[in-house]
Amino acid sequence: LIALQEVDKRFGRRDGLLDPEAIRSETGMRLLVQSDLPQGHGWHGNALLVRSEPKSYRRLRLRLPGFEPRGAIVAELDLGDGEFRVIAAHLGLLRQSRLDQASALLKAHREMSPMPTILMGDFNEWRSRRRSALTILEPTFGGGASPRSFPSRRPIFALDRILGWPFGLVTELEVHVSPLARVASDHLPLTARVGFRG
Fold it and tell me: Which of the two residues, 197 and 167, has the higher pLDDT score?
């Protein structure tokens, strides 16, 4: 499972920037389309790729508050190991917007039926401790250190996150460093292992 941000043009018709057929041919990953637009791929730029056809799939979209238009996608799916939820988000650049967006994500999570949940994306949060918007999410999703992922050529900020509920769901969090990753994006990708317990 891969969450991506900025998969659509930001202005105009918001056409998708991916080539889903090439991705499928090269990697076996398929795009779970979130857009209602014929040429769109994501919702506010967020999209998910999965390796196999889900046994079940339900999508939701969340509008996030803030100065810039932001959103998150929610997918409840079963890839063969049981149902789980993924929330992929790209939080804003302004601190107050991130605080409001983190609160909205937590509220949405609490209003949904309980199931293992992965919360991930570009959270644009470089502050630590008290001033961080992530303190809103930590009691539910945990927090702790995340690898530095931005900028990709010489990472100094840990802007990206993969968090899980319940605690212990997400392990082996690492940043993927390769020459191709450094030119593919201004963020290095994060990887993690997700362990579902019976």
Answer: 167
Q: Within 10 A of 44 (CB to CB), how many other CB atoms are there?
A: 25
Assess whether pLDDT exceeds 90 at residue 190: yes
Residue 168 structure tokens: 């212990």
- Mean local confidence (pLDDT), 148-176: 95
DSSP at 40: -
Cβ distance 117 to 143 under 8 Å?
Answer: no
What b/e string do you get for 168-196 counting C-beta neighbours within 10 Å, with b at 16 or more? ebbeebebeeeeeeeeebebbbbebebee
Per-residue tokens: 10: 């930001």
Q: Is 5 exposed, middle or buried (0-12, 13-18, 19+ CB in 10 A)?
A: buried
142 by Cβ neighbours in 10 Å (0-12 / 13-18 / 19+) ranks as middle
Read off the tokens for 57: 């799939």
